[in-house]
């Protein structure tokens, strides 16, 4: 449009059309690069296994041990346990348990025996209390074997005859030897037989009791 026509139109009240605004191009557009410089690249750190497909996966299977640690699985050397190995292990376990049970039973029996001996000794002590016939003035030594050794008890002449005739007997109580009647000796034997130290059978041959004679000479090397 010429200047004269534009002037005429302006004179009639027309205004010129507004010019379009110019916008600044984006920073990446001015440089000729796309807005996202990382477009097309994988996000995050790549997997170490996928970085080199030539290397096999080094992770261990679940449990970390071959065979999963189950019975019958492979041994450390790689060979699985055979039926014979399993049966042998069971046999060892059964024998160990049996030996343990035997030890427990033996210990229980030992304790029970000790308890019975204590009770028997206590009952015997009550039986012979104040019934001993020992004579403090006796001077005749009557020897007899007991516990693998030769023991002796001092008696008077009448007691020696009665002892050799089986009318009296000897008990061992707490390291002492007590002279008692034959009836009391029988009762004591029924309660606790090991306490009977000397019991004479009047019908036995005399040579079976060489210590019946008070003149019997005891050897010098005798252990009392």
- Summarize the helix and strand pattern as letters: HHHHEEHEEHE
Computed structural class: alpha+beta
Beta-strand content bin: 5-15%
Q: Could you list the spans in which at least 5 consecutive residues all have pLDDT below 50?
A: 63-69, 219-224
Largest sheet: 3 strands, antiparallel
Helix content: 25-40%
DSSP strand tally: 5
Helix count? Answer: 6
**Rg to the nearest angstrom?**
58 Å
> Based on CA inertia axes, which overall geometry fits?
rod-shaped
How would you characterize the overall build of this protein?
There is one protein chain. Helices cover 36% and strands 13% of the residues. With 224 residues, the protein is of the alpha+beta class. The longest helix has 45 residues, at 83-127. 8% of the residues are buried.
Secondary-structure topology with pairs:
Layout: H1 3-11, H2 27-31, H3 48-51, H4 83-127, E1 140-146, E2 149-155, H5 157-164, E3 168-173, E4 176-181, H6 182-191, E5 196-199
Antiparallel strand pairs: 1-2, 3-4, 3-5
Helix pairs in contact: 4-6
Task: Give a nutshell description of this structure.
With about 220 residues, the protein is of the alpha+beta class. It has 6 helices and 5 strands; from the N terminus they run ααααββαββαβ.
């Amino acid at each position: 449009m010429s200047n004269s026509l534009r002037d005429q139109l302006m004179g009639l009240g027309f205004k010129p059309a507004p010019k379009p605004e110019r916008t600044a191009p984006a920073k990446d557009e001015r440089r000729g690069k796309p807005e996202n410089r990382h477009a097309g690249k994988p996000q995050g750190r790549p997997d170490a296994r996928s970085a080199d497909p030539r290397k096999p996966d080094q992770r261990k299977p679940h449990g970390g041990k071959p065979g999963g640690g189950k019975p019958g699985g492979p041994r450390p050397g790689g060979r699985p346990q055979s039926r014979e190995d399993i049966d042998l292990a069971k046999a060892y376990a059964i024998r160990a348990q049996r030996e343990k049970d035997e030890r427990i039973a033996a210990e229980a029996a030992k304790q029970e025996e000790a308890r019975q001996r204590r009770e028997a000794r206590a009952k015997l002590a009550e039986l012979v209390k104040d019934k001993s016939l020992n004579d403090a003035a006796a001077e005749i030594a009557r020897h007899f074997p007991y516990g693998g050794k030769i023991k002796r008890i001092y008696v008077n002449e009448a007691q020696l005859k009665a002892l050799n005739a089986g009318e009296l007997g000897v008990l061992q109580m707490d390291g002492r030897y007590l002279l008692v009647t034959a009836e009391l000796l029988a009762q004591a034997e029924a309660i606790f037989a090991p306490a009977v130290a000397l019991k004479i059978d009047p019908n036995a041959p005399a040579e079976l009791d060489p210590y019946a004679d008070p003149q019997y000479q005891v050897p010098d090397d005798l252990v009392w």
